[in-house]
Design goal:
This protein is α/β, with parallel strands linked by helices and 281 residues long. It contains ten helices and nine strands. Bound molecules: ligand C2E and calcium ion (3 copies). This is Bifunctional diguanylate cyclase/phosphodiesterase.
């Protein structure tokens, strides 16, 4: 079988080996960057449509090599996941985000959302790690949201069970759970009813990006918002770039919006001002 498929399989093998090599190189550099304190967390505002207030922020990690342009997470998170470095990196982001957000919560009641990868959720002491970040920062559990992708909750097996147990324990201290990029996975909808989640983040691909079939695109967003509401979940629309998007989402009853229209991810020092009521649209 190996010989028969040789000429088709080989290039793919090579490509795979190339990617693996690239990833382990990236992971090496990333490990050094973490030690050298070259990572930063930026924050993007999340706005409640009811009252047009910034009620929280999403923490988004950046790699800032000295003298170079910042590198976005899409270029290093996959390598961090493949190498396992994501556990240390994720701990660092969580600690930093809780520390930055503690004064924003104390002064403005704001919350912070942190992205958590499947590898982190599979750590046996994940709940302890979150507790430690909360305790060290003084941020209450109720001010923290963990963003996870739907895949980690779906499917039987010990992995999904462990994740569900972790999230259930964290929700007991007020931590909220958001499903990120909702609608882009391949899972069934039944899990929405049965699993420990609070928030649906509607992926930006569902917003109308052209004038083609706006009615069809609108119907899809409406269906997601209605589904979420009937299950008692909060909806957050991602990638809101235009007034038209915001208007549509308001009309459909979406709870919160996030996107370039409301604000780009920015360093903590700039984010502190995002909560001042006079600066909010
Ligand atoms: P995500 O969680 O879906 O985050 C939203 C991404 O969309 C961010 O990209 C954000 O900058 C971008 N975005 C926000 N508003 C708009 C908009 O109006 N239009 C468009 N086109 N894009 C918008 P970013 O910061 O490059 O992050 C990419 C992904 O990397 C994130 O997607 C998340 O999956 C992952 N990520 C970021 N930080 C972390 C982290 O600390 N841990 C883990 N595990 N993953 C992270
Ligand atoms: Ca996210
Ligand atoms: Ca997302
Ligand atoms: Ca995404």
């Amino acid at each position: 079988a190996k010989a028969a498929g040789k000429d088709r399989v080989l290039p793919f093998d090579e490509q795979l080996r190339d990617q693996q090599l690239q990833r382990s190189r990236t992971a090496e550099q990333l490990r050094a960057a973490l030690a050298a304190d070259e990572l930063a967390v930026h924050y993007q505002p999340i706005v409640a449509l009811d009252g047009n207030r910034v009620i929280g922020v999403e923490a988004l990690v950046r790699w800032c090599p000295p003298g170079g342009a910042p590198i976005g997470p899409d270029r290093f998170i996959p390598a961090a996941e493949a190498s396992g470095l994501i556990v240390a990196l994720g701990d660092w982001v969580l600690a930093r985000a809780c520390r930055d957000a503690a004064p924003w919560h104390a002064r403005h009641g704001a919350g912070v959302s942190v992205n958590v990868s499947p590898r982190q959720l599979a750590e046996p002491d994940f709940v302890c790690r979150v507790h430690r970040a909360l305790e060290a920062s003084g941020l209450p559990g109720a001010a923290l949201t963990l963003e996870i992708t739907e895949g980690v909750l779906v499917g039987a097996g010990p992995q999904a069970e462990l994740t569900i147990a972790h999230l259930t324990a964290l929700r007991a201290i007020g931590v909220r759970v958001a499903i990120d990029d909702f609608g882009t996975g391949y899972s069934s909808l039944a899990y929405l009813r049965d699993l420990p989640i609070d928030i649906l983040k509607i992926d930006r691909s569902f917003l109308p990006h052209s004038s083609d079939d706006v009615a069809g695109q609108t119907a899809l967003v409406r269906a997601i918002v209605d589904l979420a509401r009937s299950l008692g979940l909060i909806t957050v629309a991602e990638g809101v770039e235009t007034e038209e998007h915001a208007e549509l989402l308001r009309r459909l009853g979406c709870d919160r919006v996030q996107g370039y229209l409301l604000g780009r991810p920015a360093p903590a020092a700039a984010t502190a001002h995002a909560f001042a009521p006079e600066l909010v649209a």
